[in-house]
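User: I'm putting together a teaching handout on how multi-component assemblies are represented. Below are the sequence lines for each component of a complex, exactly as they appear in our records. Could you produce the 3D structure of the whole assembly as structure tokens, so the students can see both representations side by side? Please keep the chain order the same as the input.
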Amino acid sequence: MVDATHGPDAHAAEFPDVELYHPRSWWTRYVFSQDAKVIAIQYASTALAIGMVALVLSWLMRMQLAFPGFLEFIDAAAYYQFITMHGMIMVIYLITALFLGGFGNYQIPLMLGARDMVFPYVNMLSYWTYLLAVLVLVASWFAPGGPTGAGWTLYPPQAILSNTPGQEAGIVLMLVSLILFVIGFTMGGLNYIVTVLQGRTRGMTLMRMPLTVWGIFVATVMAMLAFPALFVACVMMLFDKLLGTSFFMPAVAEMGVQLAHNGGSPILFQHLFWFFGHPEVYIVALPAFGIVSDLLATHARKNIFGYRMMVWAIVIIGALSFVVWAHHMYVSGMNPYFGFFFATTTLIIAVPTAIKVYNWVLTLWRGDIHLNPPMLFALAFIVTFVNGGLTGLFLGNVVVDVPLSDSMFVVAHFHMVMGVAQILVIFGAIYHWYPKITGRMLDNTLAHLHFWVTFVGAYLIFFPMHYLGLMGVPRRYFESGDISFQPPSAHELNVFITVMALTVGAAQLVFVFNLIWSIRHGKPAGGNPWRATTLEWQTPQTPPAHGNFGRELPVVYRWAYDYSVPGAPEDFIPQNQPGPTPPHHEGSE
Amino acid sequence: MSVVIMLFAGFAAFAGWWLAQQRLTSKPWLEQGVIEGVPDFEASHDPAKRAGLGFFLAIVGSMFTLLAGAYFMRRDLGDWQALPVPPILWINTGALVLSSLALEYTQRSVRRGDIVRLRVGLAVAALFALAFLGGQLIAWQQLSAEGYYVATNPANSFFYLVTGLHGLHILGGLVALGWATAKAWGSEKVEGVRLNVELCATYWLFMLFVWVVLFSLIAGWASAFIELCGQLLS
Amino acid sequence: MVIAVVFVLIVVGSVVFHFLSPWWWTPIASNWGYIDNTIIITFWITGAVFSAVVLFAAYCVWRFRHKEGQKAAYEPENKRLENWLIGLTAVGVAAMLAPGLFVWAQFITVPAEATEAEVMGQQWQWAYRLPGADGKLGLSDTRLVSADNPYGINPDDPNGRDDVLIQADYLHLPIDKPVKILLRSIDTLHDFYVAEFRSKMDMIPGAVTYFWFTPTRTGQFEVLCAELCGIGHPYMRGGVVVDTQEDYDNWLAGQSTYAQLYAPEVLKTAGLD
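Assistant: Of course. Below is the structure of the complete assembly, with chains in the same order as your input.
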């Protein structure tokens, strides 16, 4: 394979013998690119941009809760549009897209020693379909009636009735956007799965894959099987809305007017929605689990504790998450006997999840902990995830869910466990891999400022919020000040939460500034600033060139976690480093 | 949702069987050196493409299974009136079978290295698939002429929904088939289109299977069959 | 280093907040003290786990923070430790699940002596219906809802004629009598929720759902809607008054039936017989 006239430093785009797509112009190199790294950055930028919209929406809704009437343009309709769009954007268009479309695209080929995804053209289509989905979503702001205000769960019949904002066009655009997202995502997901299965380099067995790849891989498999449920639910609701069918629509006497629908089942929609919706929680959690494992191992200079158990736990969580969906429906009026089954499966899933938490903290034990920004975020993830996971044991335990469901407790729980925790991992991952993506470090002082405000602020927002829910304050209330059982101090708490939310939001501007400023002014990073073992840090160029690994693909000789191996000269051994290795101590059996 | 659970139990069993062969209990920190057996993507892209199609079919399969699950749940809500089966559906089924057979014939032509027959096979398959789609449109027309509109009854709604989605998948398949046909006409050797033909044939067989299941669902045999199974079990 | 201190502060602060903050559940007014007990059990177990994990992490960060020349230990796994942790976690989970399922079985088993009361939700108000002297609610259907039949009661069902209708008023319930609340909606999802009763359930148009409880404290309680039902959702309020039996009987005597309000001709026919 190796042509002697070319040195190993030859530019990757000039390999005649590598079957690879070669960009020919500026347009195909940077815009309609089929390079997974460019697609990753496109996905991530789009997701972060739309995520900023969702962040502003959260400010607006918090302003309304703390200072009702202060911002005069927020009426009830606007408020419900804000919460709906905030939720949908954050769950689907930001976190899912960023973890799988962003980190998936960047990390999978690099970490597995592949030149690119296996179907680069389909991968490119995936991004453009995703962008179209985002644009359709944004378009609903400009449609008559504005975006839908049905809540991110889009429950019928209310989602398509006339007393819900966005009933004219918003809900249609929302459903179309979701359908486009599922289609685009399927194209990307096929790439991630098949690249993991077929695109690995020589020596990279499954058990040598970094946990980041394991997390993204299992999450993608789940997404591929769960998203069809969302697709089906959206198509059927579109039929109900546009063609007047009655899949989900029962007979409705709306404000005294009989509608034409008859006999449909709102519960059927809820089953379909949560059949997607619950795996979705783990679709965004598993990549975070994987990434945080790698951050902890790298910055504690220690192998991840119990790697095998971590892999098995990811697989088991992925499988179990398909049989817990109805724990979102304990008080929906479904057959109450389902409660026994779903409470049991839900609490069982806590066991493998707990194992992962134990193994993360045990990785710290007797480590050599470098408190770099990525490590700080990973540690903060542990706190918020444990907190949110444990409150999940309240809501998963069917009878405890009865008083707490639909209350602020739920809001606090899922923000802690799949909002704050996941976002902290995203930040940690960006601080960790930014040097590889741009060749420069992010500014350390700004990073610390960003970290402390975000972590402490987010905890102060969501921890006290649980107690409002425990008191009985329902979620999705445009105004809650006059609820009879609320002491006046509850309003003071609301003001406090809003002030913290504004502060945390402002801290994200520091982060965005840091991202942009450091592209040019950051400290040069070198190829492997964290002294990490995995393959993405062993590329000949930083940022990696087209084709990732120069003329020859790396060969993998060891697992991803050879940190602080006894007798080794350095405290890390890259995965592609051959040669005699010192005898390993076997873990005590 | 029990059909969905059964399908997913099947997926889980398959995944478990596959994972069991991946040495998931090995202790990777004890193993140094190259471990062979990882697929070599640089050498051949074919296995990746086959795996990609396999996963795609799993996704399509779960979509149609979820629709079937919704069908069963909605059917039991009281206002269900099954719609008559238009006889043309039998002709359409025949067209899809012939289309699939033509692709099997094409695959044999690939093995024989006969580029002319291969081209003919692809064209015939495409024609029969188009005939199927046309026939489905006629079925829609006949039903709506008789007053079976999409919103009249949930049975009608499901009929239009599932046949529509199935038709869209055939249409998507026709794009791939068209690509294969164009490639076959542009080259003199069969090797270039071997994989295209193989993947198309697999996809066609799968969509035929989906159609047969959907047809039996629409005609009511699937329900009768499930009731029979339920009686045997109880 | 700072982060270890912050972790400790988070644990201490959270525990202090839990015990000292003024925000806690409302005083209970039903028999579902079991639910409160299950919540307390869950608080103790999860609180202990949270404190243990975060404090352990804080200790590790402080004890094993990077110093010049330090090298991490090499320990790929420890099967015994992991098995112990799995076992302990399973026990903890079972300790929460078992009482939870036990109470759930009670929650869905309505006692035979429970009387029925129907709550009907619509955007954005509550209406109530009591079975009347015959103890049976008449059949109803959303399709029958109209200006002169706001409940959609089937006029042909004799059981419905003596049904007591309570519109634009509070529902009254007698103390210490188990009541099965039947839930119905004529437009979209609603959720009949009284914080002091600890129990709630969605109402689904086209179906009748239920839950039951026994009021244990007299007084007036606010009804909230707990399922998003359009822009008026937060204003969908009502009230439940728990009375002594005597007060309840007096109140009930002042209410009107379906026949009195909406079908006087039916009443006349019945009166002529």
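A couple of points students might notice: Confidence is low (pLDDT under 50) at residues 1-18, 585-589 of chain A. Chain A has one domain: 32-245+263-538.
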